[in-house]
Amino acid sequence: MPLDLFSVGDPIADTKAPRDVPIGERWSTRRFRARLVNPANRRKLTVIVVGTGLAGGSAAATLGEAGYKVKNFWFHDSPRRAHSVAAQGGINAAKNYRNDGDSVHRLFYDTVKGGDFRSREDNVHRLAEVSVSIIDQCVAQGVPFAREYGGLLDNRSFGGAQVSRTFYARGQTGQQLLYGAYQALERQMAAGTVEQFARHEMLDLVIVDGRARGIVARDLITGEVSTHFADAVVLATGGYSNVFYLSTNAKGSNATAIWRAHKRGAYFANPCYTQIHPTCIPVKGDYQSKLTLMSESLRNDGRVWVPKERGDTRDPREIPESERDYYLERIYPAFGNLVPRDIASRQAKNVCDEGRGVGPGGLGVYLDFGDAMQRLGRPAIEAKYGNLFDMYAQITGEDPYETPMRIYPAVHYTMGGLWVDYDLQSTIPGMFVIGEANFSDHGANRLGASALMQGLADGYFVLPNTINDYLADGPFEKVDDSHPAAVEALQAVQGRVQKLLSINGNRTPASFHRELGRLMWDLCGMERSDEGLRKALDRIPEIRHEFWTNLKVSGDQDTINPTLEHAGRVADFIELAELMCVDALHRNESCGGHFRAESQTPEGEALRDDENYAYVAAWEWTPEGAPPVLHREALEYEYVHLAQRSYK
Amino acid sequence: MTATAEGTTFASGTASDPAMAKHDMTLTLRIWRQKGPRDKGRMVTYQVEDISPDMSFLEMLDVLNEKLILAGDDPVVFDHDCREGICGSCGLMINGTAHGRGTSGGPTTTCQLHMRKFKDGDTIDIEPWRATAFPVIKDLSVDRSALDRIIQSGGYISAPTGTAPEAHSILVPKKDSDAAFDAATCIGCGACVAACPNASSMLFTAAKVSHLGLVPQGQPERNDRVVNMVAQQDREGFGGCTNIGECSAACPKGISMENISRLNHDLLGALRAGARPKS
Amino acid sequence: MAKTNSVAKKAVVAVTGIIMILYLIAHMIGNLKVFAGRESFNGYSEWIRTIGEPAVPAQTTLTIIRIVLLTVVIAHFWAVISLWRQAKRARPNGYVTKKAVAQSYASRTMRWGGVIVGLFIIYHILDLTMGVANPEGPDGTPYDRLVAGFSNPFITAVYVLALVLLGMHLRHGIWSATQTLGQSNKRREKTVNLFALVFSVVLIGGFLIVPFSVLFGLVG
Question: Which residues form the domain of A375?
């Protein structure tokens, strides 16, 4: 590896999981060993929570219920807008209600294997243990999960799992779970335990004497930049898929909070692990602002194909069966159209690269329900997928009952994130990271219906049981606006805002964002190569330079100014993109969502290199343009044995 | 967007495929511009060209804003986020109907309204939600925190983390669970208030009262919930319901009027049972 | 109860509305006595004034009915005006462009229609009850006043217009009351709406048959 791209620092390790007891006892042991905070002392301790999604909302509500003074920040108008709301499929839990052989151990096993052996066993096992309590909690809140006629909860098999462990609320599970957390949060706001800071964006972290003690936030309505202090800071700000510009994330989803924390010393782990979802509605034009996901469940009955010949632009209905290539069924006879997300996505890319893609720009493949319509009849298809078909028709203007859908992969989730230990504490003492914003549980690939599980596990059950061990040392010495660290952070943010407004060049933030996204999608997307990543690493600094010299932001600082907000986020995405490419380049193996062209089997499948890469890559930011420092956390597999995935 | 080696210079807007370059509408937009809560505000006319029928309504506004930014003008402020019809952020009055319901032909959010519903040469009026309880922040963006305060006043089930019994100890008939779900799909966008001739938030409140009142877990707080939520919506300055049905017609999630009847039923029952709102 | 409770006010509107509807039914049926001839009609008018005699003084029952009705009308108007003002405060500045999607003509005309019907009732009392606004004057019998009034096409036109407005008011009012009192649901919605329509048509038809019969010389 070229040393100019990064340097190697000391290894890092999680020291919090009690490895001296068997894995099944580690979580209860940790809870027992963690110090507690006397209820009377809790109200003297302040915790800042940034974000109100499944992780942030549930954490803020739970910490408020416990009696801590919580300050909750979010950039939307209401906590209910957080992008968790858009999750469709469901939430896994090892309840074994179907008596089909599920157990905590099986969920643990499936998640480690599904993550392609790049996650930490301790964290995953805890996730599987806690999963059962999540369902209990949500039901008690009144979340209207799907039920059977007997009144019991319904379960389905999801994402190719062999057991039915997924709980769901029609196609809106994320929405319903989020509203459960949101209602609990609003209840605490009414009770006065949680103070609300709506339409506030975190722009920096304040560190005093080595501890995270506050944040700098900008009020998005008045433009006022101010500092807020606490005894601990929790980041629950989601993932960074929008580095690709086009993704299934919401327009506002961004990496600014975690990136600023990274620049203040928090290690960033596995940034190159991104998940690409195979069933999204394809791009239509340059004006496209986001991509829409359609539930993976469509692949249960739809058959994926492209024409055998390149450049075949006939109406799909006129292409005879013999001239169609049902490539997933051809390559993977055992799993067919139900292969995991990463494989389905990459094969779609391959056939499009061969020039056999369909639709505008040749970037799409057919998802055909013709057979299913004949076999089951239109009413059955309507009952099962009606809402998805309607959504497709509304967006594309095509009737999927008449003509095959067109789908294409899109970036959907980022497994990477800030490094945390078993307590979910980052490398900055007092800063905790939960939900998609951390890296902890999914390894190199996330299983379907596991994101909701992780967000709520972290927020309801894990963080509230680990943060007390840190807070037991508090309350810490009082800090206010006049502290040099606070003054420095505040001025840095103000200076940056002024800088963005003063460049007065010729390109909008969106134009830089689109360019960066296109570059990342092409060179650090579904398939990465040494050559492509190096090219990206040449190009990104040029984009960054042009950004800081040719950006145009109109409007003022002291009012609501979405262009200014966007500019700040794009600036951070550009820096993050560079680290993603360095990480992707250094990891010269294929694993999960990270596919390196140089590391594949003769059949073109992902080839892991456990000997050299069975570790978490935790990156340390180095100021003054020095390359980032790599800290390796070795991954050991005591309970799930390393094996190559196969879906043939 | 294939991984071509050269494919790295992409400023805004050159499409290689002719099908992608098919931009064929010119529209006149009359947009409400208002600098802040104290500004009077007025309609301002803009022209947008090369609008593709495949664009969403918000993508059409993006095109306008990019032009405004480059010209050094203030772009039009509007709330939006997920752009897939579920977060409830977006909400515009389009040609006099909430979310453009009069144009869409079916329930929709503004982000899911597509330009193919309009014709070349159309004039489109765009206004913010208007209600005392939704003060304008700027242009088309309004403050809907009143809806959150209605939830704060009782729109929850008190179930602190960790206290929950085993999920299967509570059986919920499928019929009730499905009806609760239908009510719970409300995304809190505020279209019901915007469309209501009385600027009433009744459909929003009723959806939450119904959701929680239909499941067994919601019973202990049922009476207090409804009296407090109704009292809060009155305090916020919303109008009263006169059962006209504009709300339900505008609702992107199709929340039905029967939820309002259910709220009324619960409220009158609760008052008879002696429940009184917290002051 | 909270100082303002919009739903409770709506319930007042609904309950008072229902009482007035019950009265209207009786009124309409009573009117049909006109087809039994002058004596019968005047006798009916007299009977109303003497119910319960001699146990109670003359006009007792009628006075009670009048007091109840007056209270009900005042309560109906008070609640409605209070809600109207609340709605005004809830959106002081309207839209530049606003179009209705679901609103029916009946629901849109509830307020002004209600006011017009209210004014009509005053006129109606002056005309047929007190007779001061009647061509026949206060001295004629009820039957004479009726015939004298409705022989005038202009007066009949006023009645027709007001009654049609009342019909629309009832059509939306009945549906709205069902909804307000929490008795509506998706299953019943159609039935309630159909009932409201049929009921309004029959009731108003029953009222209208009298002036038209006079106008076309079938009565008198």
Answer: 277-411
User: What's the rounded Cα separation, in Å, for the pair A385 and A401?
Assistant: 11
- B230 located within any domain: yes
Pairing mode of beta strands A268-269, A615-620? antiparallel
How far is it, in rounded angstroms, from Cα C110 to Cα C167?
Answer: 11
Contact C86 B239 (CB under 8 A): yes
pTM: 0.95
Edge-first strand listing for the sheet containing B25-33: B42-51, B25-33, B123-127, B93-94, B97-98
Q: How far is CA A468 from CA A17, A193, A206, in A?
A: 15, 17, 21
How many domains are contained in chain B?
2
Q: Chain centroid to CA A488: how far?
A: 31
* B180 inside domain: yes
Provide the pLDDT for residue A436.
Answer: 98
Between CA A315 and CA A307 the distance in angstroms is: 11
**B75 within some domain:** yes
A519: Cα separation from own chain's centroid: 20
More confident residue, A462 or B8: A462
| CB-based contact B55 A363, cutoff 8 Å | no
Please provide residue B267's backbone torsions phi and psi, each rounded to the nearest 5 degrees.
-65, -50
Examine the pLDDT at A645 and tell me if it is beyond 80: no
Tell me what pLDDT residue B13 has: 36
Same domain as A503, residue A407: no
A336 vs A357: CA distance, rounded Å:
19
Boundary residue ending a domain (A361, A388, A411): A411
Sorted by where each begins, the domain ranges of chain C are 6-93+104-215
ipTM above 0.90, yes or no: yes
Question: Measured between beta carbons, which residues in chain B are less than 8 angstroms from residue C179?
Answer: 243, 257, 260-261, 264
Mean pLDDT of chain A: 95
Burial of A371 (0-12, 13-18, 19+ CB in 10 A): exposed
Q: Over pLDDT 90: what percentage of chain C?
A: 70
Q: How close is the nearest chain B Cα to the Cα of C158, in Å? A: 28
Q: Is residue A409 within 8 Å of A259, Cβ to Cβ?
A: no
Q: Is the pLDDT of residue B164 over 80?
A: yes
Per-residue confidence (pLDDT) for residue C186, from 0 to 100:
85
Closest CA to A528 of A601, A590, A616: A590
CB A139 within 8 A of CB B164: yes
Smallest Cβ distance to B240: which of C2, C10, C92? Answer: C10
Domain boundary among A392, A411, A430: A411
Q: What is the pLDDT of residue B7?
A: 31
Same domain, B151 and B74: no
Total domains in the fold of chain A: 2
Distance from CA of A29 to the nearest CA of B (A): 18
What CATH number does residue A342 fall under?
Answer: 3.90.700.10
* A120 found inside a domain: no
Residues A282 and A398 placed together within one structural domain of the fold: yes
pLDDT in tens, C106-156: 888 899 999 999 999 999 999 998 888 888 888 888 999 999 999 999 999
Q: Is the pLDDT of residue B136 over 90?
A: yes
pLDDT of residue C107: 84
Q: Are residues B151 and B254 in the same domain?
A: yes
Structural domain for B245, as ranges: 145-156+174-272
Please, which residues bridge with residue B46 across strands?
Answer: B29
HSE-up of residue B174 (Cα within 13 Å, Cβ side): 9
Q: Are B6 and B102 in contact (CB under 8 A)?
A: no
Domain membership of residue B27 (yes or no) is yes
Residues of B in contact with A172 (CB under 8 A): 86, 185
Q: What is the DSSP string of A266-314?
A: --EE-TT-EEEEEEEPPP--TT-----B--GGGGGT-EEEEESSTT--S
A80 assigned to some structural domain: no
Scored b (16 or more CB within 10 A) or e, A17-49 reads: bbbeeebeebbebbeeebeebeeeebeebbbbb
User: What does the pLDDT average to over A564-593?
Assistant: 97
